[in-house]
Specification:
The chain is an alpha+beta fold. The chain has 2 helices and 7 strands; from the N terminus they run αββαβββββ. The chain has 2 domains: 31 residues; 96 residues, Immunoglobulin-like. It is 30% helix and 29% strand. A 7-stranded antiparallel beta sheet has the order 2-1-4-5-6-7-3, covered by helices on one side. Strand 5 and strand 6 form a beta hairpin. The chain starts with a helix and ends in a 12-residue tail after the last strand.
């Protein structure tokens, strides 16, 4: 009788733990959702990509470079960090303007470094982790 009671208590604790864990995961995903997919025009429609900051002003118009930069954007990993302002709150960041031929909308993003990781932020849309291999496009050739 005692062993049966002990088994029921043990089973109840295991089931209770599983229910609490699932509930915690659901609440976490609800209150801290992943960012939506990055907003990006069709690569074929991009006529230029401009990257600027205090010390840099670059404009890429060749298809190969546009394709390469686009792949970095499209492969960026969504984070749970919210974008809640027009500009990043970081002191230093790069502004990336993507100009599409058939779209009247300017695709503006920001790239910055935080805790030795690089991120793309799209205002009010999301923050995405980006591969550091994109850094050569952010360097000044002069």
């Amino acid at each position: 009788m005692k062993k049966t009671k002990l088994r029921w208590v043990g089973s109840f604790i295991v089931v209770l733990f599983i229910v609490v864990a699932i509930g915690a995961i659901i609440l976490y995903n609800h209150f801290f959702p992943m960012a939506e997919s990055i907003q990006y025009p069709s690569i074929e429609t991009i006529s230029a990509i401009e990257i600027t900051n205090n010390n840099l002003e670059k404009k890429y118009t060749d298809n190969e470079t546009i394709e390469t930069i686009s792949q970095y954007f499209l492969n960026a990993k969504a984070t749970r960090t919210l974008s809640i302002s027009d500009n990043p709150t970081k002191e230093e960041y790069y502004i990336v303007n993507i100009i599409a031929e058939d779209d009247s909308r300017l695709y503006k993003s920001y790239i910055y470094k935080e805790n030795s990781k690089w991120y793309i932020e799209q205002p009010y849309w999301g923050v995405y982790r980006i591969d550091k291999d994109m850094l050569p496009f952010l360097e000044n050739d002069n």
